[in-house]
Amino acid sequence: MKFSVHRAAFIQYLNDVQRAISAKTALEILSGIKLDLSEDGLTMTGSNSDISIETVISIADEQAALNIERTGSVVLPARFFNEIVKKLPAETMTLEVNERFQAAITSGSADFTINGVDPEAYPHLPEIDSREQLTLSGDILKQVINQTVIAASKQETRPILTGIHLAFKEGELLAVATDSHRLSQRKLQLTGKNEADHDIIVPAQSMNELAKMIGEESEDIEIQIAENQILFILGNTSFYSRLLEGNYPDTTRLIPQTATTTLEVNAPEFLRAIERASLLSHEGRNNVVKLTLANGQATLSSNSPEIGNVEEELTFTELKGDDLEISFNPDYMKDALRSFGQSEVLLSFTLPLRPFTLVPSEANGDFVQLITPVRTI
């Protein structure tokens, strides 16, 4: 095989595929990137068994300026290939592979040769025969992922909680993640012909990588779901992920429907106050910040016996209900507040040791963050 391509455009495609390649993998060939050159374009594939990414550089892509001289396929060591391409001196590069799968990479005065392997040994991508297709706006999907992925568990003791639960039903999407200490839930009314019903759990790590691939000016993303795989199609790129097996816990009963105390704050201002308090809480053994709501005032405090203490009177929009003193992990609170952006947020409390919720003040229940307090006695 032999082709030349504009290097900057090639690197953009290469970066997407690289997301699916892990340094440690059970199959050594998966540490490589597969290149398949046909008369219509160049297909690049990366996989780590959990996710697979395939992207196509079409000969019609003017920015890539792909020039095909001889078709063929090869698997090249991903890490070395990626580093070489990024450091080449000229705007264009040429790659030529001989019958022994040795790849010669030339650009300007630079000339590299790296050893590839036979692509026949590379695993085939999953086949998803799904007649039902869902479509979501790229920026909306990215927002849903970023708002929920923060609450997914990073511990493998309960694998099911390392995923995001996606329930498509009657034209609505419900996305939920929880690690049993906090929870994030987002509801979304689907438009168009998105009427298929699915109940799946996608690994949070996969969704996180997908979100990074979605650009600011993204187009609609097509979603296809099979028994144990999900496929997201972003223009010329296909993103496959395995699905987690099992039943996600019923989280609807965890969200309190009533409140005895409510506090409305500006999310960025409250976030900065939490960041100041956590400077000391991180030095303590428990990493706890206390919020005191009493006598019409809201006070944030933290104490580290080794360092000192901090106390700050908060500004707020509105405070209603019973006096309350509640302690929580500030890192959970910071993640939750960041997910709200610049909006006003309503915090709703019941008891000092019962979970409390955060919702946008102008929302109608479509987005909820829940945090479980910390017992300090």
Q: What would your notes on this structure say?
A:
- Residues 136-250 form the DNA polymerase III beta sliding clamp central domain.
- Residues 253-375 form the DNA polymerase III beta sliding clamp C-terminal domain.
- One of its GO terms (molecular function) is DNA-directed DNA polymerase activity.
- Belongs to the beta sliding clamp family.
- Strand 3 and strand 4 (51-58) form a beta hairpin.
- The protein contains six helices and 26 strands.
- A nine-stranded antiparallel beta sheet has the order 14-11-12-13-26-25-24-18-22. The chain has an eight-stranded antiparallel beta sheet with strand order 6-2-3-4-17-16-15-10. A five-stranded antiparallel beta sheet has the order 5-1-7-8-9.
- It is elongated and about 80 Å long.
- The protein is of the alpha+beta class and 377 residues long.
- Helix 1 runs antiparallel to helix 2 (78-87) and helix 3 (138-148) runs antiparallel to helix 4 (204-213).
- The chain folds into three domains: 2-121, Roll (DNA Polymerase III, Chain A, domain 2); 133-242, Roll (DNA Polymerase III, Chain A, domain 2), CATH 3.10.150.10; 256-371, Proliferating Cell Nuclear Antigen, CATH 3.70.10.
